[in-house]
# Entry
Amino acid sequence: MSADLAFTIGGVRTEVRFVERIEPLDPASVAVFDTVTRRLFGGGFPAERSVVLPAGERSKRWRSVEAILGRAAALGLGRDGRLLGVGGGVVCDVTGLAASLFMRGCDLALSPTTLLAMVDASLGGKTGIDFRGGKNLVGSFHPASLVLVCPAALATLPDREFHSGLAEAIKTAVIGDPALLDLLEARREAVLARDPGLLAEVVERCLRVKGEICEADPREEGRRMLLNLGHTFGHALESWTGFRGWTHGEAVAWGMGRAVALGLALGATEPGFARRLAALLAAYGFRLEAPAGLRELGPALRLDKKRRAGTLQFVVPRGAGDVAVVSAADGDVAGALGAREMG
# Structure
């Protein structure tokens, strides 16, 4: 079993423990599931101390947060109580926001059940819900004190959800672990076959990269922005499509393709690396072409949270383990959106 990890993010110590099964933490906690994770992992969790949300992006709404807050209040949960989110990125984000609000901040634990949540959403303290068509427009920073990673849970994932998480793993490798990028290339078949030991290594390496970045920049004022590789374009695509037709990971993979095209246009991305990343994303089955009927993404891009002084910031890769934040003119952005090739 992989070694445990610990990070201090924004003054909060987050312990990451690799476990063999998902179990209740303590009798006083309130657990949050979606309908799928409740069925798969809810055995042993008392129904009266559980909140079950609809599965999918539609639960990233205020009514979900209100349901969690209402259950916590009805049970008399104190500020020393704990909310436990058991699920993917949506459950982690919504439970985290509720924990940041209840009693002005109660303890939070997360048990991610998807690859995407294990490598990204469960660590770092970002919480959020979608608002007025914008992805994660309302949220807070509230790091979990405990993250329980159960690699065995990945065996339950539908293929599409598993692939969605691989996009975040590739993104993390590009940002901060060139050796992981090599591994994802060389052992693609074993990764896709969900080799348990290999996946545990992938998750741990991703968490190390993200944890170290978040320790240095807990509130995304500098280096942490690099973790948004693929997200500015990807979030705009999700918003433009009404959060239908693309999973978050698929949108991020597409967004990485657009970020590479932008980097090439600005002279920031090495053409050889652009071809390498395009080949890797294609090998893992991600869509890189512009969606049929794509309209101008300007309105959706302008909703992005990463603006500085009214100017959008984009993360572009220069090479393996080398990424940068850049500003770009509207013409360059439009060109990147319409580009047919990444390298």
Notes: The mean pLDDT is 93. Residues 261 and 341 are 7 Å apart (CA to CA).
